[in-house]
D-3-phosphoglycerate dehydrogenase
Amino acid sequence: MIQKSIDSSAAKSELQAVLFEGIHPSAVEALEQAGYTRIVTHAKSLSGDELLAAIADAHFVGVRSRTQLTAEVLQHARQLVAVGCFCIGTNQVDLKEAMRLGVPVFNAPFSNTRSVAELVLAQIIMLMRGIPEKNAVLHRGGWVKSAADSFEVRGKTLGIIGYGHIGTQIGVLAEQLGMRVIFTDIEAKLPLGNAQPMSSLEALLSAADVVTLHVPETPQTALMIGAAQLAAMKPGSHLINASRGSVVDIEALTVALESRHLHGAAIDVFPIEPQGNDSVFVSPLTRFDNVILTPHIGGSTLEAQINIGTEVAAKLIRYSSNGSTTSAVNFPEVALPAHTGRSRLLHIHHNVPGVMAHVNERLSEAGINIAAQYLSTNEEVGYVVIDVDSAASQVALDELCAVPETIRCRILY
Ligand SMILES: NC(=O)c1ccc[n+]([C@@H]2O[C@H](COP(=O)([O-])OP(=O)(O)OC[C@H]3O[C@@H](n4cnc5c(N)ncnc54)[C@H](O)[C@@H]3O)[C@@H](O)[C@H]2O)c1
Ligand SMILES: O=C(O)CC[C@@H](O)C(=O)O
């Protein structure tokens, strides 16, 4: 295990942000405007030793969906203060390990929701009309003027698996086109418009003309659409996956397309995705004219990416300069007021009995007056924020760092 420093205090001018995967420049602008100057950007994702070297001195790491921040990678980032996922999904980060290391992870939970919904809506119409295949034939000099296997979406059934932010948006838009919307989710959900919850995945699959997936990557969603589920779909129906590549068994999908049991598919996410735009894309799906393949761009509109850049950068900046962890996906949440005229200390500790007594005893024995204290805990980690008189801040920091249960402590500059 790499030895991290318990005291991760650093002046703003020393804090380094490393951003991967072509995160929109709006993030860099926001960080610069807030006074952060040590910003390193990478156009693509890195892995292995290159990734370890790139984040070795980083205080903030920004990723999109491709960069894998595993436990081992996180342990190598000795200075790491916070992680920003400049996207919705956070499955690429070992969230538990980040929490145990005292590192909150932030994301942008709905800045690209509309972009995904619009793309899926377009794909529904294109697939129902058989456009991908016709388009491919014409590109090769052919001509297929036919209404065979070409349908209006009006009156057809859309099956949504995962009725969260994206799933509900698509449901609302699809109803505007006259579609009947059915859905499944592991949680009880308020149906919007005339959408109907289905009693089981099988019931949804056998009723839908188009099935669209909007679940996160979890152990439960891994390969949730395999040979049996594809066989349960209506003959001549369509599958759309803009969730995560791990959710669909691609080999089983190729069999269902080969046999024409499925009429078409639109796939935006893949089990293995290239690291950047200079890499080669390999998939058994490339041979199918009736499959729309897109390079994980469901959320890649300028509107979404600009907003994501500013939103996630703002969360990192807020945590860095104020200590607030509101909307962190893996960490006790604290919303903090400004600490004008005082020094603010952050203390992240193992949440075991007696730890707060240790914190307060040490500060009291050192004669430090606590001006304000804020605490939030989860089952493993406690996060306490303490405002003290500025003259006492260094002594207070030393005392906090000496508390045996300490994971991290930091003074805000
Ligand atoms: N293609 C893209 O560019 C793109 C863009 C944004 C998001 N995404 C992916 O889409 C996913 C969904 O995004 P969202 O914003 O709608 O998330 P969300 O959290 O709002 O909704 C996900 C829904 O799935 C449900 N769910 C979880 N496990 C399930 C299961 N096993 N079976 C059925 N339902 C289940 C949840 O209860 C929730 O309602 C993200 O996690 C991300 O992986 C992809
Ligand atoms: O921009 C990306 O790489 C990920 C987009 C999307 O999958 C998300 O989770 O928001």
Observations:
- Residues 167 and 264 are 20 Å apart (CA to CA).
- The two ends are 29 Å apart (CA to CA).
